[in-house]
Amino acid sequence: MMALLSALFLVAGAGLCLIAAVGVLRLPDYFMRMHAATKAGVAGCGLLLIGVAFAEPSPGMWIKVAIAIVFLLLTQPIAGHLLARAGYVAGVPLWGGTSDDQLKGELRRGDFDQPATARPRRTKMQKGIDQVVLGLASGRGLETAIAEALELARTHKADLVGLAIVDTKTLHNVGPVPLGGNHYAAQLRNTLTTKARHRMAEAVQSFEQAARAANIRFAVSVEEGDPVAILRAQLDRGVTLVLPRHAWFDHGLAEKQIDPAARLARHRITPAEASDKGDAPIVVFS
């Protein structure tokens, strides 16, 4: 009987540890993976210890197992909480499908992707603008942003560049993938990326038509990847960045609507105007 109980507890504990290991490998963000690892530490190891106690039943063994389990119950939840809090405050990204951040406004978040010493951007117009970079994101406010970029380029006799980006970092984050679901997840990523490319092409076409109608010379650059990193690389002295206020480079395909101003502010790219003024574009001076 003792051997059977020992086997049951050992198999159950090993099964929980296996499931937790799969969770650490497959879950989409830091907090979910940490949750899986914590469950393995408490429940999985606890069941394994009980199985060992049934295999070698003696008062001394049960006392040792009880002490170990109490130690796990006291330390693992606290350690998990502290690690989660540290990750959240450091700015570790949440899963793209997160619908509600209950700690928003309660804890100040940092910027995990960029060092804390990142140089802040100027919020006032400089004496000279050498280049105007227009972010081509399809959606509400694109036409207003195009008009603003054309006016800045004409007024300051600056070079005009249309920067078209596909936010693959967001579009490829399709959430937790069940075992055997990699093929369908890859299909979904490819479908979203293809749709974003088509919408991006429409935005580029609108920009080109407006620039030609205004008789302003321009260039177009196409990128795929993390828009924040791409935009940050563009911001050099004499460069002005213009973005639609209500459109991001997911081109409206992400599950949750992205606020461009909030996304830029999180990464210390400060617009000239922080307040929302209808469809007025976001302008960043370097």
UniProtKB/TrEMBL annotation:
UniProt entry tagged with the keyword Nucleus: no
Gene3D superfamilies found in the cross-reference section: 3.40.50.12370
GO MF annotation list: sodium:proton antiporter activity
Pfam families: PhaG_MnhG_YufB
Record field: transmembrane: 36-55
Keywords on record: Membrane, Transmembrane, Transmembrane helix
Record carries keyword Membrane: yes
Name of the protein this chain belongs to: Monovalent cation/H(+) antiporter subunit G
